[in-house]
C-alpha cells in the first residue's frame, strides 16, 4: 500500500481537466467547484447534473472523447472514464507534461487520490484509507457528518476572526499563542450570530486576563518565550 502525503491545494481559478462524465466525474467535479476550480470536462456522454452545470456555465464541456492536448495548461488532471486503456493513456500524457493526475479505476497508477470530504465552513474534515477501502472512508465521513453539526463552521469562522483580531491587538507572540490555544478550549458561544467587535474584545480581554493570571501563578508573567 502506498504511503500518501496529505495536502490542501489552492485550485481557485486554476484549470482542472476532467476526462469522463459519469457518476465518478460528477462527484469529483462537485468537489472541484466547491474549491472554485476552472473545470474543463471532456466526455461524449455526461450525467444530467453535469450537463446542467455546463449549461449554467459552471464548467466548460468538450462534448467528445478526450483528445491528446486537452490537458495542456491544467494544474490537475482527472482520468475518470470507464475505459481503462484511455485512463492509462491520459495518465501517461499528464506525467510527460508534469501535471499531477488522478486515475479512477486504478488509484495507485495516479499521482494523487481523493479523500472523503466533509465541509463545515472553513473546517474541512477529510478521511482516507489510502485506497484500501473507499467505501469505509465514505462511511466514516457519514459518522462525522452526524457528529459535527453546521454550527462548527460558524465557530471556526469565529475563531478565525478572533485570531485575526488577536494578531492586531496582541503584539506579544507568546501571549498570543497562549491565548489562541486557550480560545479553542471554550465551547462555541451560544450567540455567535450577535458577534460584534466589542464583544470580541471582551472575550479576548477575558482570555488575556486568564493567561496573565496563570503566568503570575507560575512566576512567568514576563517570560513568554514564543516557543
Ligand atoms: C484510490 C481512489 C482514487 C481516487 O478516486 O481518488 C479510489 C479508487 C477506487 N474507488 C473504487 C470504488 C469506490 N469508490 C467509492 C467512493 C469514493 N472513492 C473515493 C476515493 C478513492 N477511490 C481513492 C481512495 C480513497 C481512500 O481509500 O481513502 C472517495 C473517498 C472520494 C471521491 O471519489 O471523491 C469516494 C467516497 C466519497 C464519499 O462517500 O464522500 C465507492 C463507494 C460508492 O460508490 O458508494 C466505491 C465502491 C466500493 C469500494 O470499492 O469500496 C474503485 C473500484 C472501481 C471499480 O470497481 O471499477 C477504485 C479503483 C481502485 O481501487 O484503485
Ligand atoms: N475512484 C472512484 O471513486 C471510483 C472509480 N470507479 C471507476 O471509475 C470509472 C468510471 O466510473 P463511472 O463514472 O461510474 O462510469 P460511467 O460509465 O458512469 O461513465 C463513464 C464516462 O466515461 C466517458 N468516456 C468513455 N470514453 C471516453 C473517452 N475516450 N474520453 C472521455 N470520456 C470518455 C463516458 O462518456 C462516460 O461519461 C469506472 O470504470 C470504475 O472503474 C468506480 C467507482 C468509484
From TrEMBL:
InterPro entries: Met8-like, NAD(P)-bd_dom_sf, SirC_C, Sirohaem_synthase_central, Sirohaem_synthase_N. It comes from the Bacteria. Residues 120-145 form the Siroheme synthase central domain. Its EC number is 1.3.1.76. One of its GO terms (biological process) is siroheme biosynthetic process. Keywords: NAD, Oxidoreductase, Porphyrin biosynthesis. Pathway: Porphyrin-containing compound metabolism; siroheme biosynthesis; sirohydrochlorin from precorrin-2: step 1/1. One of its GO terms (molecular function) is ferrochelatase activity. Pfam families: NAD_binding_7, Sirohm_synth_M. It catalyses: precorrin-2 + NAD(+) = sirohydrochlorin + NADH + 2 H(+). It is an enzyme of class 1 (oxidoreductase). NCBIfam families: cysG_Nterm. This is precorrin-2 dehydrogenase. It comes from Paenibacillus roseus.
Amino acid at each position: 500500500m502506498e504511503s500518501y502525503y496529505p495536502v490542501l491545494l489552492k485550485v481557485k481559478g486554476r484549470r482542472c481537466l476532467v476526462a469522463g462524465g459519469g457518476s465518478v466525474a460528477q462527484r469529483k467535479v462537485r468537489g472541484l467547484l466547491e474549491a472554485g476550480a476552472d473545470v474543463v470536462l471532456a466526455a461524449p456522454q455526461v450525467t444530467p447534473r453535469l450537463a446542467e452545470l455546463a449549461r449554467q456555465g459552471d464548467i466548460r464541456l468538450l462534448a467528445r472523447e478526450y483528445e491528446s492536448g486537452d490537458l495542456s495548461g491544467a494544474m490537475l488532471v482527472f482520468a475518470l472514464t470507464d475505459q481503462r486503456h484511455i485512463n492509462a493513456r491520459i495518465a501517461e500524457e499528464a506525467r510527460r507534461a508534469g501535471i499531477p493526475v488522478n486515475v479512477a479505476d486504478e488509484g495507485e497508477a495516479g499521482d494523487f487520490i481523493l479523500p472523503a470530504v466533509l465541509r463545515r465552513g472553513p473546517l474541512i474534515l477529510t478521511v482516507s484509507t489510502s485506497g484500501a477501502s473507499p467505501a469505509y472512508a465514505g462511511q466514516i465521513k457519514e459518522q462525522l457528518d452526524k457528529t459535527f453539526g453546521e454550527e462548527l463552521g460558524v465557530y471556526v469562522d469565529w475563531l478565525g476572526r478572533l485570531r485575526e483580531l488577536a494578531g492586531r491587538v496582541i503584539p506579544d507572540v507568546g501571549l498570543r499563542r497562549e491565548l489562541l490555544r486557550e480560545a479553542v478550549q471554550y465551547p462555541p458561544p451560544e450567540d455567535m450570530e450577535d458577534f460584534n467587535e466589542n464583544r470580541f474584545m471582551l472575550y479576548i480581554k477575558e482570555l488575556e486576563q486568564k493567561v496573565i493570571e496563570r503566568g503570575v501563578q507560575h512566576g512567568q508573567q514576563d517570560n513568554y518565550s514564543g516557543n
